[in-house]
């Protein structure tokens, strides 16, 4: 039952807020309509029909009592002038039907009920024969008496006028409430959009508080949170830059010292040259590891997001990968494809993925296409792949596969993609290797 109600109810805050306004409004108008139509109108209608019925009974009694035709004509003229009843006597005729042609309102049933209690003759009431009059046919023993009475004596007014007024006023109030609610919901939507953009790493600046007091407080709190996070990231980036400088300084001195050591003129010059080359290689590897650790901790958060054309961007990435001895077999990009990204950060992401494929001796196929709500980038290789039960494990920091490395390549790539508001998934490639699926939202 609850799920069925949820499917019927609107999902947006604006829709639900308008329902909160609409239901009490409809109930209030329904109560007003019932109080008027069900009580007051019925009471007045019974009084009006009772008055007309009494005059009709008086006319019947007078016509039955008066035997002289001149007296009857005099009474018919008096009824027309004083009672507003137009009476026509049709001797010898018979009624073809009895009852009433019903209309909207209580006066038709009230008039039928009053006449049945007041007279014992069959009758028929035509409400639709004339626009401004109601014709009543009464079957007497020797003929039919036609009585025309003004409709205004029985009808207080068209009921549809009251219904139209109730519906029109409700609609007007609902539109006014909708305009006010839309302004309130607009502020909430702006706050939600700002939070989403900030979660994607896009610098939107502080938002202007608007709307109700609670929404303004939420906007102010969001601005303060955004400012604190930005200052924290900037402070951490500055500290990491200093750490990077401090770590590279001794490594640079070691590299310089090793480069200045003599390599010839000694008995063991050949062995020393090999040892020096190995130490220089170890220092280079240490520098690469430091760069990876610092990139992982820094999160590439200082670069601004911009709209990038995917074709030239991926061509540059593939060209750099081929210079680094990565075998890229093919590049397939959907024409006219654009994406919002940090170019340097995404370049580092793809470089890490290419480097993983190179270490495992695999070739790569890079594909980019547009999908619903964003851009999808596929990196397929024909290497050994990763078993499904180890895919969550290799995405953890410092989890290295059999190909060596620091264990941060996939982790850094995933964090960069998530910083864009997207997601990275590891799947099986069509050729049996690993497929890395990157999704970037618009």
Can you give a write-up of this model?
By secondary structure, the chain is an alpha+beta fold. Among the domains are: 1-159, Sensor histidine kinase RisS, periplasmic domain (Beta-Lactamase), CATH 3.30.450; 302-441, Heat Shock Protein 90 (2-Layer Sandwich). It has 11 helices and 12 strands. A 5-stranded mixed β-sheet has the order 1-5-4-3-2. It has a 5-stranded mixed β-sheet with strand order 7-9-10-12-11. A two-stranded antiparallel sheet has the order 6-8. It is rod-shaped, with a radius of gyration of 46 Å. The chain starts with a helix and ends with a strand.
What can be said about this structure in brief?
This protein has 442 residues and is an alpha+beta fold. The chain has eleven helices and twelve strands. It has helices at 2-8, 13-65, 69-82, 107-118, 159-199, 213-260, 269-298, 310-323, 343-359, 391-394, 409-419; strands spanning 86-91, 99-100, 123-126, 133-140, 143-150, 306-309, 328-333, 338-341, 364-371, 374-381, 423-428, 434-441.
């Amino acid at each position: 039952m609850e799920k069925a109600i949820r499917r019927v109810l609107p999902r947006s805050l604006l829709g639900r807020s308008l329902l909160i306004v609409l239901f009490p409004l409809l109930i209030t108008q329904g109560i007003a309509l019932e109080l008027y139509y069900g009580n007051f109108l019925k009471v007045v209608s019974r009084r009006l029909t009772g008055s007309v019925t009494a005059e009709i009974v008086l006319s019947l009694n007078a016509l039955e009592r008066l035997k002289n035709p001149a007296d009857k004509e005099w009474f018919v003229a008096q009824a027309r002038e004083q009672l507003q009843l137009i009476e026509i006597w049709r001797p010898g005729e018979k009624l073809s039907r009895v009852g009433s042609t019903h209309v909207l309102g209580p006066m038709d049933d009230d008039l039928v009920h009053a006449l049945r209690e007041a007279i014992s003759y069959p009758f028929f009431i035509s409400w639709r024969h004339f626009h401004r009059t109601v014709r009543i046919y009464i079957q007497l023993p020797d003929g039919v008496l036609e009585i025309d009475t003004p409709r205004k004596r029985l009808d207080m007014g068209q009921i549809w006028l009251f219904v139209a007024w109730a519906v029109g006023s409700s609609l007007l109030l609902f539109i006014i409430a909708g305009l006010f609610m839309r302004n309130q919901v607009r502020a909430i939507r702006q706050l939600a959009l700002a939070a989403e953009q900030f979660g994607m790493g896009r610098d939107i600046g502080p938002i202007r508080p608007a709307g109700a007091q609670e929404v303004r407080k939420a906007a102010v709190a969001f601005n303060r949170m955004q400012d604190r996070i930005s200052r924290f990231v900037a402070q951490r980036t500055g500290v990491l830059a200093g750490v990077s400088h401090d770590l590279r300084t001794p490594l640079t001195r070691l590299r310089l010292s090793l480069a200045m050591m003599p390599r010839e003129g000694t008995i063991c010059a050949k062995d020393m040259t090999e040892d020096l080359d190995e130490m220089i290689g170890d220092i280079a590897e240490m520098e690469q590891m430091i760069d990876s650790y610092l990139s992982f901790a820094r999160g590439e958060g200082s670069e601004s997001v911009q709209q990038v054309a995917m074709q030239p961007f991926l061509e540059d990435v593939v060209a750099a990968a081929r210079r680094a001895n990565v075998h890229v077999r093919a590049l397939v990009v959907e024409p006219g494809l654009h994406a919002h990204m940090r170019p340097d950060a995404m370049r580092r992401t793809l470089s890490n993925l290419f480097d993983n494929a190179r270490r495992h001796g695999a070739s790569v196929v890079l594909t980019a296409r547009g999908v619903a709500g964003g851009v999808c980038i596929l990196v397929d290789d024909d290497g050994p792949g990763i078993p499904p039960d180890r895919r969550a494990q290799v995405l953890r920091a410092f989890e290295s596969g059999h190909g060596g490395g620091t264990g941060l390549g996939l982790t850094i790539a995933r964090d960069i993609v998530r910083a864009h508001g997207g997601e990275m998934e590891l799947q099986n490639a069509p050729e049996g290797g690993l497929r890395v699926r990157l999704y970037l939202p618009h």
